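Continuing the batch. This is chain 6 of the set; chains 1 through 5 are on the previous pages. Same settings as before, nothing changed between runs. Recording input and output for traceability.
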Amino acid sequence: MSVARITEIKASSKKSFDDAIKKGVKRASKTLKNIRSAWVQDQEVSVNKSGGISEYRVLLKVTFVLKD
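Output for chain 6:
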């Protein structure tokens, strides 16, 4: 029997939501072992004074299996 844990990761990118997701998963994999999945719980953007998007942010739920 396996036991899994879920942790939340918030990541950001100046390019896109897709890039923020990739950065978040890549960073999580440096610390967490046995990552099995990740899903986006929330997305948001930071808006600058001129009304443009300055940053894309995602809140990820990352699932990983604990070692026996």
